[in-house]
Design brief:
By secondary structure, the protein is of the alpha/beta class. The chain contains 11 helices and 10 strands.
């Protein structure tokens, strides 16, 4: 039998799971240190010391789902199968807050400015490709699909149009694929759009509505970790990455913006969230509106 080292004893002490009757195991120093490094490396999310209680609270639910009684066991699971747990971990520590037509000025800009330009420039053929990067539960790409479908119909256009919607969270993607939402979550959708683009549930499905098949045809939903390889080739005419980079550290943001620039057509557009900025992080884009950026070199 080998003799435990001093480092091993110290780690065991710091990881010891105290079990208060109501709160469950405590996230020790060593496990929290590992989780911070793991999340930064694999998700690009920087967790400060002040996030410890939040991480502990959110991961407790994941431990229970896996039948684990301590955070050390969960860390071992991450070490042995990082990819298998990545989506659930990201879902637990991030906040999937979204809504239909959130930051409506972005959708107005697409409908009133970009789509007329695109229809004119692509009138002799071509295709239109948009990417919702960090689509969460699907409200963003489906709202974009509404705008695209309405404008294309208005102009009688048959332009080949698709929206790629990606996210790391398997739970969020499952909701997006299902395309079923409670009426309470549709506050940003006008009554006219609710009648046109949603199928109301009846009986046991009362209070729910399903996205119209026409919109589902426009949206392709796929899992993707923004920090890993991107299987799609592009190029895209516009990328929506709103309220995503707010979680990332500066080097990760810089790398991501460079990669976005490489995936956009010359003069393509990048939309960020209302509390996000590219200031001092990229020379590939110019600010042209409220968190609306255009790729240089058009």
């Amino acid at each position: 039998m080998s003799t435990p080292t001093l480092d091993g004893l110290n780690q065991a002490r710091s990881n010891r799971a105290e079990l208060p009757a109501s709160n469950g195991p405590v996230l020790g120093d060593a496990d929290f240190r590992f989780l911070r490094e793991f999340v930064l490396q694999h998700c690009g999310i920087a967790l400060g010391e002040h996030k410890r209680q939040l991480v502990q609270g959110r991961l407790l639910r994941r431990l229970r789902a896996l039948g684990l009684t301590e955070f050390g066991s969960y860390c071992e699971r991450l070490r042995s199968d990082p990819e298998g747990e990545m989506g659930d971990l990201a879902s637990a520590i991030s906040t999937n807050v979204t809504s239909f037509f959130r930051e409506v000025h972005h959708y107005d800009f697409v409908a009133d400015t970009l789509l007329p330009q695109w229809l004119q420039s692509k009138r002799d053929g071509g295709r239109l490709r948009l990417w919702s990067a960090g689509c969460s539960t699907g409200e963003e790409p489906y709202a974009l699909a509404m705008v695209l479908a309405e404008v294309l119909e208005k102009h009688g256009s048959t332009l080949d149009t698709r929206i790629l919607a990606t996210d790391l969270s398997p739970q969020a993607l499952a909701v997006a694929r299902e395309g079923v939402y409670s009426l309470e979550r549709m506050g940003g959708v006008s009554r006219e759009r609710q009648r046109r683009w949603f199928l109301r549930g009846e009986g046991s499905f009362d209070g729910l509505a399903r996205i119209h098949p026409r919109l589902r045809e426009l949206v392709s939903i796929q899992p993707l970790n923004l920090l890993h390889d991107w299987p799609m080739q592009g190029p895209f005419d516009a990328i929506f990455c709103r309220n995503v980079v707010i979680y990332f550290d500066q080097p990760t943001k810089q790398k991501l913006f460079r990669r976005y620039a490489g995936m956009l057509v010359p003069g393509g557009y990048l939309f960020l969230g209302h509390s996000e900025s590219m200031h001092g992080l990229s020379d590939d884009f110019e600010l042209i509106g409220r968190t609306i950026y255009r790729k240089r070199g058009a």
